[in-house]
Fold this sequence. Notes:
By secondary structure, the protein is of the alpha/beta class. Helices cover 36% and strands 23% of the residues. It is built from 20 helices and 26 strands. Strand 20, helix 13 (380-384) and strand 21 (388-390) form a beta-alpha-beta unit.
Amino acid sequence: MCGIVGYIGEQQASPIILEGLKKLEYRGYDSAGIASLDNGSSVIRRSQGKLVNLENILRDQPLTGKVGIGHTRWATHGKPSEINAHPHKAGSIIIVHNGIIENYLQLKDQLKQLGHTFKSETDTEVIAHLIEESLKTEADFEQAVRTSLLQLRGAYAVCILNDKEPGVLIAAKLGSPMVVGLGEKEFFVASDIPAILAYTREMVFMEDGEFVIFRSGTAVFSTIAGNSIDKKARHIDWSPMMAEKGGFRHFMLKEIHEQPRAVRDTIAGRLLELDGDVYLENLQFSDRQLAAVKRIIIIACGTSWHAALVGKFYIEGLCRIPVEVDIASEFRYRNPVVDENTLAIVISQSGETADTLAALREAKSRGALNIAICNVVDSSIARESSGVIYTHAGPEIGVASTKAFVTQLTALYLFTIRLGRANCTIDVLHGQRMIAALKKIPGLIEEALRLNDKVEKIAKKYMNARDFLYLGRGKNFPIALEGALKLKEISYIHAEGYPAGEMKHGPIALIDENVPVVVLVPKGNSYEKTISNMEEVITRGGRVIAVCSTGDEEVKKRAETTIEIPNLDEDLDPLLLSVPLQLLSYHISVLKGTDVDQPRNLAKSVTVE
Length: 609
Ligand code: AGP
């Protein structure tokens, strides 16, 4: 999830673009760059690390020119470095890009055969070379861009310059956000409103497949294929802070609503549908190496540990390899049995959690193969592991993890397919069915998000409880744990997650009318047993909030409150069940007036033991 900014008009472009990039740093900041055109030549300044590094470079070596493009990077392809930073240039073409091009490798091979050489590892540089190649045959710059974009598969929001055409800026959008700002004889392009709100409140929101060319003080909108379209500007009256949260009141709520996009980005370019397999670009283990794995240990903390617990069900159930799950702060002190046939999987959103990093080092020191599931490219854990499956959730600002969790589950499911295909426990047809189900998840999460208002009402009803219980069976038990963690960490209400079948062994003594009990009871193979656990609670006066499958009348006639979610595939229920639980904890926290994004005593990344 990168940030792009473009400017063309009467002012110097570079300062405007730099200020815009600063407002987009929440989208990622492992490198940045700006290019500007002046007197027919282009100059590019780029830097690794935070934006302030670029700012320092520009202070010493300012850019001049009234047309420019800029980028702040959240790496997906290619590690954070100056060489991988945008803008990228090929011939006279300069580009910045937010998104993931799924077919960039085959395009890169084709271009190499035509004599193109590449400097970076990015998918973005391939687009610049593609346009440079198209310029040889197409009528003009505009047509060369259109022809090139139509060859791309995946997602992009791009700003493109041609230093042979200094008065022209082109932008186009497919799958990644883009807004155009209309000024007095000047135009702005950005990934998000905050970048340009200081300069204009007249915004045109680009839709997928749309294209705009700015020249001679005009903006001409069309489809990428070239059909003219009529775009209306909207007046945006948000405050700058509201704008950074995309109009949402808190980063957590914004990130909850980003989950469909986060899952789409995490599976993008990785599904080999015909083979019923997946391609995990940073996982260099051969099928033979994966097939030799006899035991797996998944190690993590907090919410990532809950994802690990679900991963155990996926891998044991589908790949028939025994899996242990360890809390990272415990793992290295229990003298674990680890050898060269053990695969250690560490899961960490930040990639900096001290306990998880220490556990990775411990597993490696005992000879384990190892991989990491991380959300931050080139983080410590990512760098020290032998292979990484990156979640592409984009920066997660809210301390309470939401979109990162759902993309961790997605990554574990992808890995399960890969492992099962390598050790032949999942055949082509089964792999194809799993992929087909996974592709439906973003849409089903969008459906679950429509529960927001209903869940807000439920939050009002139960917000004053002092204790909550969350119950689930099987792979929904970790979701019960996750729901409880979400509630306690942002609303400060005590909450516990339990296996539903465990109630009779003690916790049922807690039940009375003051203890709301959230029961996860979607249709599936533990449905009947969970219904009877729910009845145990109800007969003792417990107040049940049941999260069940849409239209489940059996549950609706029993529970005090029901939240109905779409469910499609039992293995993927955990991704959908998470959404209402995230919303419930969010709304209760807001109603209680606690600090949703930065709850007391907590840090987003626990880099100390
Ligand atoms: C989850 O909402 C919490 N923020 C916390 O439990 C978090 O999951 C844990 O600290 C692990 O962080 P990591 O995924 O960055 O390693």
